[in-house]
Input
Amino acid sequence: MDVMQNYKCPCCGGAVEFSADAQKLKCPYCDSEFEVDALKSYDAEVSNQQEDDMNWNTDAGESWQPGEEEGLRVYVCSSCGGEIVGDENMAATLCPFCDNSVVLKGQLAGDLKPDLVIPFKLDKKAAKEALINHYKGKKLLPKVFKDENHLDEIKGIYVPFWLFDTDTDANVRYRATRTRAWSDSKFNYIETSYFAVTRGGTVGFENVPVDGSSKMADDLMESIEPFNIAEGVDFKTAYLAGYLADKYDVSSEESIKRANERIKKSTEDAMASTVHGYATVVPEHSSVRFNNGRARYALYPVWILNTTWKDKKYTFAMNGQTGKFAGDLPCDKGLFKKWLFSLTGAIAAGCFALSYLIWLL
Output
């Protein structure tokens, strides 16, 4: 004996009823109609939907072997607390994060050794040229800001990143619509048809980077991606000669949330790109499940450029491998007012000319 089941309207959530006239299930609240089999299939899909399962193996990096860290020293900033790694011959320097002096703390010990490093390919001269190019075309940039001698410091830093690899099984359900419009002698009509669209598949991810330094702005680091991991090599301390290395202070476990956000969004975007032919498409539910997820520890080359203007610090970053450059710029309020005034005048003149033309016509 079949048990009567109460179905909810996918459009408004109200309880649907069977319409003898239409021979369909009908919602008395929004007047949507559904084929019985279609609504049963939709209900089964909702009942069987899976939740996210995003777990990782975070055994990244390995311990230093005896003697490997010889010659490396840790320097700590007395102002912001940032710790950087350099060789034993590094002279006194400024903190790349806040510009205050750093002092020697002692020999490197007790931290994980990176799995790999991408060596610097571009030098300080390339970083300065990239900054000048970044200024070009910025008409509202303060003139004094463009002066080269206004640059406080340029530092080449190996920034710690956690690299996440995983295969994902994903299922996404969308609510989609198509519309049809027509008219008669009395009325205009619009018919909206609703569809439950599902997509499922497997997407592989390799080396999804998450910045492992709390002192580096995540959005700034992501702005200079991507790095070419194919040029990564096994870590050796010789690569640090002449550069700094930021010590990670965000663990792989603490980086999982950001990795999950990036992977889930990319997976959902990949699925959404296959949905075509509808007027609107709105995701209703997604499930992403990881297989063989693991994390690795890497150092990426970044040039950090610091400058100040009107007591405000501006930080720029350049990918030390590809040259991609990013950083916010200030706006000269005086130049902005002049630009706004000229724009307003141009608009007013255009409106007057248009009004005069209409009057002539």
Q: What stands out?
A: Residues 1-48 form one domain. The helical segments are 36-47, 124-135, 218-223, 256-272, 333-360. The chain is about 20% helix and 35% strand.
